[in-house]
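Reply to dn_fold:

You asked what the input looked like. This is it:
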Amino acid sequence: AVEAVVPPHGVPSVHARLDHPAARSAWGPVLGRPLIVSSRYGVRGMDRFVANFTLRLDSKGRVSIPGAFRAVLVRDGFEGLYCYPALDGPAIDAGGRALIAEIEALIGRFAPFSEERERLALALYGTSETLKVDGEGRVVLSESLKRHAGITDAVSFVGLGQKFQIWEPGRFQKELAEATQKVRVLKGRRSSQATARKAPGARE
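and this is what came back:
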Protein backbone atom coordinates (compact mmCIF):
# COMPACT_ATOMS: atom_id res chain seq x y z
CA ALA A 1 0.00 0.00 0.00
CA VAL A 2 1.24 3.47 -0.79
CA GLU A 3 1.75 5.97 2.02
CA ALA A 4 -0.47 8.97 2.60
CA VAL A 5 0.79 12.42 1.75
CA VAL A 6 -1.61 15.18 2.76
CA PRO A 7 -0.11 18.66 2.24
CA PRO A 8 -1.09 21.74 4.30
CA HIS A 9 -3.70 22.88 1.75
CA GLY A 10 -5.76 19.78 2.61
CA VAL A 11 -5.79 18.11 -0.82
CA PRO A 12 -4.45 14.55 -0.61
CA SER A 13 -1.67 13.71 -3.03
CA VAL A 14 -1.65 10.95 -5.63
CA HIS A 15 -0.34 8.52 -3.02
CA ALA A 16 -2.96 8.97 -0.28
CA ARG A 17 -4.00 5.78 1.48
CA LEU A 18 -7.65 4.90 1.89
CA ASP A 19 -7.31 4.43 5.63
CA HIS A 20 -5.49 7.69 6.35
CA PRO A 21 -7.76 9.88 8.55
CA ALA A 22 -6.54 13.15 7.03
CA ALA A 23 -7.32 11.87 3.54
CA ARG A 24 -10.80 10.81 4.61
CA SER A 25 -11.35 14.19 6.26
CA ALA A 26 -10.25 16.16 3.20
CA TRP A 27 -12.04 14.16 0.54
CA GLY A 28 -15.04 12.71 2.32
CA PRO A 29 -17.30 15.80 2.08
CA VAL A 30 -16.37 16.22 -1.57
CA LEU A 31 -16.86 12.71 -2.81
CA GLY A 32 -19.70 11.58 -0.61
CA ARG A 33 -18.40 8.05 -1.12
CA PRO A 34 -15.28 6.00 -0.31
CA LEU A 35 -12.02 7.35 -1.72
CA ILE A 36 -10.71 5.34 -4.68
CA VAL A 37 -6.95 5.44 -5.14
CA SER A 38 -4.68 4.23 -7.91
CA SER A 39 -0.90 4.47 -7.56
CA ARG A 40 -0.63 5.06 -11.31
CA TYR A 41 -3.42 7.54 -11.97
CA GLY A 42 -3.97 9.07 -8.55
CA VAL A 43 -7.40 9.83 -7.13
CA ARG A 44 -10.10 8.57 -9.44
CA GLY A 45 -13.72 9.63 -9.61
CA MET A 46 -12.76 13.30 -9.24
CA ASP A 47 -12.29 14.20 -12.90
CA ARG A 48 -15.83 15.49 -13.46
CA PHE A 49 -17.70 18.54 -12.23
CA VAL A 50 -20.90 17.44 -10.47
CA ALA A 51 -23.56 18.96 -8.18
CA ASN A 52 -24.38 22.65 -7.78
CA PHE A 53 -23.42 25.32 -5.26
CA THR A 54 -24.69 28.85 -4.71
CA LEU A 55 -22.31 31.46 -3.28
CA ARG A 56 -22.29 35.22 -2.86
CA LEU A 57 -19.78 37.68 -4.28
CA ASP A 58 -17.82 39.56 -1.65
CA SER A 59 -17.44 43.36 -1.43
CA LYS A 60 -14.59 43.24 -3.98
CA GLY A 61 -16.58 41.21 -6.48
CA ARG A 62 -14.75 37.97 -5.74
CA VAL A 63 -16.41 34.58 -5.46
CA SER A 64 -14.91 31.33 -4.20
CA ILE A 65 -14.87 28.38 -6.58
CA PRO A 66 -16.45 25.44 -4.67
CA GLY A 67 -13.86 23.11 -3.18
CA ALA A 68 -15.14 20.11 -5.17
CA PHE A 69 -14.67 22.04 -8.41
CA ARG A 70 -11.23 23.32 -7.39
CA ALA A 71 -10.14 19.74 -6.80
CA VAL A 72 -11.07 18.84 -10.38
CA LEU A 73 -9.24 21.90 -11.72
CA VAL A 74 -6.11 20.97 -9.76
CA ARG A 75 -6.13 17.51 -11.29
CA ASP A 76 -6.78 19.02 -14.72
CA GLY A 77 -3.59 21.05 -14.38
CA PHE A 78 -4.85 24.27 -15.98
CA GLU A 79 -3.67 27.47 -14.33
CA GLY A 80 -6.59 29.81 -13.86
CA LEU A 81 -10.17 29.36 -15.01
CA TYR A 82 -11.08 29.25 -18.71
CA CYS A 83 -14.45 30.94 -19.34
CA TYR A 84 -16.69 32.18 -22.13
CA PRO A 85 -20.37 33.20 -22.47
CA ALA A 86 -22.48 30.10 -23.07
CA LEU A 87 -23.82 30.01 -26.63
CA ASP A 88 -27.26 28.69 -25.75
CA GLY A 89 -28.26 30.50 -22.58
CA PRO A 90 -27.56 33.24 -20.04
CA ALA A 91 -24.73 31.39 -18.33
CA ILE A 92 -20.93 31.19 -18.32
CA ASP A 93 -19.16 28.03 -19.45
CA ALA A 94 -16.04 27.33 -17.39
CA GLY A 95 -13.36 24.69 -16.94
CA GLY A 96 -9.77 23.87 -17.77
CA ARG A 97 -7.82 21.70 -20.19
CA ALA A 98 -10.64 19.19 -20.66
CA LEU A 99 -13.01 21.94 -21.80
CA ILE A 100 -10.43 23.48 -24.12
CA ALA A 101 -9.72 20.07 -25.65
CA GLU A 102 -13.43 19.55 -26.29
CA ILE A 103 -13.68 22.93 -28.02
CA GLU A 104 -10.62 22.19 -30.16
CA ALA A 105 -12.09 18.82 -31.16
CA LEU A 106 -15.40 20.46 -32.09
CA ILE A 107 -13.77 23.16 -34.20
CA GLY A 108 -11.45 20.60 -35.77
CA ARG A 109 -14.39 18.78 -37.34
CA PHE A 110 -14.75 21.59 -39.88
CA ALA A 111 -12.45 22.19 -42.83
CA PRO A 112 -9.66 24.75 -42.29
CA PHE A 113 -10.72 28.28 -43.25
CA SER A 114 -14.31 27.16 -43.84
CA GLU A 115 -17.05 29.61 -42.89
CA GLU A 116 -18.43 27.25 -40.24
CA ARG A 117 -15.04 26.83 -38.62
CA GLU A 118 -14.31 30.55 -38.60
CA ARG A 119 -17.67 31.42 -37.09
CA LEU A 120 -17.44 28.78 -34.38
CA ALA A 121 -13.90 29.84 -33.49
CA LEU A 122 -15.03 33.46 -33.34
CA ALA A 123 -17.99 32.64 -31.09
CA LEU A 124 -15.87 30.56 -28.69
CA TYR A 125 -12.26 31.74 -28.77
CA GLY A 126 -13.19 35.32 -29.54
CA THR A 127 -15.16 35.69 -26.32
CA SER A 128 -13.02 33.51 -24.05
CA GLU A 129 -11.26 34.74 -20.94
CA THR A 130 -8.78 33.13 -18.57
CA LEU A 131 -9.53 34.29 -15.05
CA LYS A 132 -6.88 34.28 -12.35
CA VAL A 133 -7.59 32.14 -9.31
CA ASP A 134 -6.08 33.59 -6.12
CA GLY A 135 -4.53 31.67 -3.25
CA GLU A 136 -7.93 31.33 -1.55
CA GLY A 137 -9.56 29.81 -4.64
CA ARG A 138 -11.43 33.01 -5.58
CA VAL A 139 -12.01 34.59 -8.99
CA VAL A 140 -13.31 37.95 -10.16
CA LEU A 141 -15.82 37.65 -13.00
CA SER A 142 -15.41 40.28 -15.70
CA GLU A 143 -18.20 42.77 -16.31
CA SER A 144 -18.91 41.29 -19.76
CA LEU A 145 -19.34 37.80 -18.30
CA LYS A 146 -21.59 39.05 -15.49
CA ARG A 147 -23.65 41.07 -17.96
CA HIS A 148 -24.20 38.05 -20.20
CA ALA A 149 -25.38 35.91 -17.27
CA GLY A 150 -27.28 38.66 -15.45
CA ILE A 151 -25.14 38.16 -12.34
CA THR A 152 -25.23 40.78 -9.59
CA ASP A 153 -24.45 39.62 -6.05
CA ALA A 154 -24.57 35.81 -6.12
CA VAL A 155 -23.81 32.92 -8.46
CA SER A 156 -24.69 29.25 -8.84
CA PHE A 157 -21.91 26.87 -9.90
CA VAL A 158 -23.43 23.96 -11.83
CA GLY A 159 -21.49 20.82 -12.74
CA LEU A 160 -21.88 19.48 -16.27
CA GLY A 161 -19.22 16.78 -16.37
CA GLN A 162 -16.18 18.00 -18.29
CA LYS A 163 -17.14 21.63 -17.59
CA PHE A 164 -19.30 23.65 -15.25
CA GLN A 165 -21.53 26.66 -15.70
CA ILE A 166 -21.94 29.82 -13.66
CA TRP A 167 -25.51 31.12 -13.42
CA GLU A 168 -27.47 33.85 -11.73
CA PRO A 169 -29.23 31.75 -9.02
CA GLY A 170 -32.80 32.66 -9.96
CA ARG A 171 -32.21 31.91 -13.63
CA PHE A 172 -30.55 28.62 -12.74
CA GLN A 173 -33.52 27.47 -10.66
CA LYS A 174 -35.85 28.23 -13.55
CA GLU A 175 -33.58 26.41 -16.01
CA LEU A 176 -33.28 23.44 -13.65
CA ALA A 177 -37.05 23.17 -13.30
CA GLU A 178 -37.53 23.24 -17.08
CA ALA A 179 -34.75 20.69 -17.66
CA THR A 180 -36.17 18.36 -15.00
CA GLN A 181 -39.62 18.51 -16.58
CA LYS A 182 -38.21 17.73 -20.04
CA VAL A 183 -36.28 14.76 -18.65
CA ARG A 184 -39.43 13.43 -16.98
CA VAL A 185 -41.37 13.70 -20.24
CA LEU A 186 -38.57 11.94 -22.13
CA LYS A 187 -38.37 9.20 -19.50
CA GLY A 188 -42.13 8.67 -19.63
CA ARG A 189 -42.07 8.51 -23.42
CA ARG A 190 -39.30 5.92 -23.48
CA SER A 191 -40.99 3.89 -20.76
CA SER A 192 -44.20 3.83 -22.81
CA GLN A 193 -42.30 2.77 -25.92
CA ALA A 194 -40.58 -0.03 -24.00
CA THR A 195 -43.92 -1.25 -22.63
CA ALA A 196 -45.45 -1.22 -26.13
CA ARG A 197 -42.58 -3.30 -27.52
CA LYS A 198 -43.08 -5.91 -24.78
CA ALA A 199 -46.85 -6.14 -25.29
CA PRO A 200 -48.23 -9.42 -26.74
CA GLY A 201 -48.28 -9.28 -30.51
CA ALA A 202 -45.97 -6.27 -30.66
CA ARG A 203 -43.60 -6.23 -33.60
CA GLU A 204 -39.86 -6.34 -32.94
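Confidence is low (pLDDT under 50) at residues 1-44.
Hope that clears it up.
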